[in-house]
Give the backbone structure.
Amino acid sequence: MGTSTRWKGPAGDRWSSAARRLGRWRGGSRTADRRLEKIADDHLQALHETLRTDPSAFGLYEAACAAGERLADALGSLATEGTESADSLIARLIPEVGGDGDTLADAAVRRGLATAIRHVRHTHPELDHAMETGTARRGIAWDILCDLYQVFFAGVVAEFLRSVVAEHIKLTAPVLIAAYPEGRIADRIAEEVMKLVPSPCEASAASTDPAQTAEIAQDPSQTLPGIAGSLVPLSVGKALGLITEEITGEEGAAA
């Protein structure tokens, strides 16, 4: 944060309520999992309400938009050049997309990117197989890259809130440290936010422009990155709760 003062987490009634609920949580009961989901939802709602009041709060919107545009630019080369291993993919994308900023938002962007890479490896075992056999060097399939794009924005939100929850635990409920609920809370948040983020692949499939459809079919690596880039404001807006319904055209761009 560029200061020696310890960050105590976001302030406000909604945040305090979520922190109190977290402080009362204990694992092992029949309702523990359901209560933890509610705690996760409370933190996500607190973040969304804060950002609706002040979209510049925490620097999340600016950081996520900038990183999202860099990720969109990287998708084309990943589709054609691929990668030789998971380590090389991480080594490339973390600095290229995540940057070297030192704010909490910057850290959430980098951790969100790492989360997205882990997710696509878990949900697309064919990617690991392609890397092991060397075929991934010829390019990564677009369905995998579109998933990476979606999970990235969800991961940014989840990782920022993971930091918030971890700080609440340290300050008010250190007894929960061993239970590590922030990891489960982050997983729940990422799962919920991912439902909100549009997929470049689905957006291209829904296109009613015959010229664009033909262009995508001919060379998606030249077209889909542009679609992904155009979706960044909508993706960030929905992930951060600034856009609560589908907005298109000039209105969506303004949002």
User: Anything to note?
Assistant: The CA atoms of residues 23 and 173 lie 5 Å apart. Residues 1-5, 246-255 have pLDDT under 50 and may be disordered. The chain is about 70% helix and 0% strand. The longest helix spans residues 142-172.
